[in-house]
Design a protein that fits this description.
Number of helices of chain B: 15
Order of helices and strands of chain B: EEEEEHHHHHEEHHHHHHEEEHHHH
Number of strands of chain B: 10
CATH class of chain B: Mainly Alpha
Shape of chain A: elongated
Strand content of chain A: 5-15%
Shape of chain B: globular
CATH architecture of one domain in chain A: 2-Layer Sandwich
Helix content of chain B: 40-55%
Structural class of chain A: alpha+beta
Oligomer: heterodimer
Distance between the termini of chain A: 108 Å
Largest interface: A-B, 36 and 36 residues
CATH architecture of chain B: Orthogonal Bundle
Amino acid sequence: MSRYFRNIFESISTLMTGLGITWRHMIRIRKDNVTLQYPEERWPRPERNIGFDFSEYNIIRSRLQVDIDDCIGCLKCERACPVQCIKIVTVKSGAKGEDLMDIGHTGLTSNGTKKALIVTRFDIDMSECCYCNLCVYPCPEDCIYMTGGPNSKKHPIDYEFSQYDRNDLIFKFAKEVEEEKMAKYLPQKEKVEA
Amino acid sequence: MGIVHGDLMTLNIGPQHPSTHGVLRLKVKTDGEIIADVEPVIGYLHRCFEKHCENVTYDQVIPYTDRCDYIAAMNNNFGYAVAVEELMDLKVPERVEYIRVIVSELNRIASHLLALGTFGLDVGAFTPFLYMFRDRERILDLFEVLCGARLLYNYIWVGGLSHDFPNGFEEKIIDFLDYFEPQLDEYNNILTFNKIFIERTADVGVMPAEVAISYGVSGPNLRGSGVKWDLRKDDPYSIYDKFDFNIPVGTGTVGTIGDCWDRYYVRMLEMSESINIVRQAIKALPSGDVHQALPKKIRPPKGSVYKRTESPRGDLGYYIESDGSPIPYRLKMRSPAFTALSVMGEISSGWMMSDVLAILGSLDIVLGEIDR
């Protein structure tokens, strides 16, 4: 009998303790509000004061962006990708470090490296990307990075790059050139002798 | 009062069910309202983790380990990195070891918060779930500052870390711990010692120590059964032997040793131990370069290694077979949640229908790790 009443007493008292906590939270709701009204409010970008001389590292996980004028086509990012979502095709540009105006190819990167290759295809399939950031570290010219972070001046952070079509998530960074103009840079096919 | 034995009814819980914590199907054989047998059907989340690892280089495996136990990705990275380092006979700087301990203990807190919150949710307590997720969010924010990602970090690399701590990050962690420590009392008041919660979980799903050991259960589930077994103490890896902390075990405070409540409470106590470890580690954090020992090319010598670490779910092991090439020849992952799920049928038969989800929730499984 006493146990029966003790159970009832314990239930009510612990329930009251719990309700007291929720009540306290309800009073402080304005102060401790953690919910963001998403379309009106955006998630604040955390301050990333890296220090330790690693300021060149971009540690935002967002959409990948390539400054194609700086790309030397070394394929390091393609090899680093664990899911093979980066596809690069290059051809030799006969003249190392020279601008080829007709196809919009610049000879020097912003670091001053002479480019020996023309990047004809640089596709990143962001629907396959696993946001591991492994492609960003090996780049010798710092031309592939995730938007935002230290590059936020050039490319503000792009959290929601949603598309209606999955194919629209394949980002093509190589310059679009007409085929006739490109043809003279492509390796000539050997004529088959009859 | 005997049980009337009629035909058993088969009831499917899942694969799409909010209480199965992922895509898990439970084939439940019921005798009226009493469970005769539970058979977990797994494999819905199989992503060929081990086969993938045979095709990518050692550093590219790390993003895949993130995706096994996606709730405690730091601990998975940690286990893998420790295993490859042992295979390569690599010595990492002291600062790296300390930072690894700090982040993996923070991740342990985050993982336990999720486990406890969803466990409360399974037995019908919604409010603590919201409070725990709110606090877990703070840890994820810390990690976002640290490495840019909130869940899949790719932070602990073989031989080092991807980044050092940002300036003032230690203070941020201390701030969080100061905020978080009183919250534990709040959780205890609102959920742990709530009479309704105790009635739902105490004496339910009792897992005796012999059963737990014979099934290979590890981690908080084993400690809930009263077995003092923690790899951080019993087989110290990294620098865990430098810290002073206790291993909480289930004592059967409100019921029998090894019931759901004990498994729950062990996790609660473990969080305060983790806070303790993080505080000690931050106090002793040495300076140094975290990129110093990063190998240019990871090419371990021929041989094999099995290294186990204590993840929030238990004994996480990596077996790596190397043939001297930059790609692992074979990689096997021993997942603690798999063994925890395998004991499900043994401990839940004889209980009521509504206890199945309480037992499942108390085991704290992650399907990403079970199916791999």
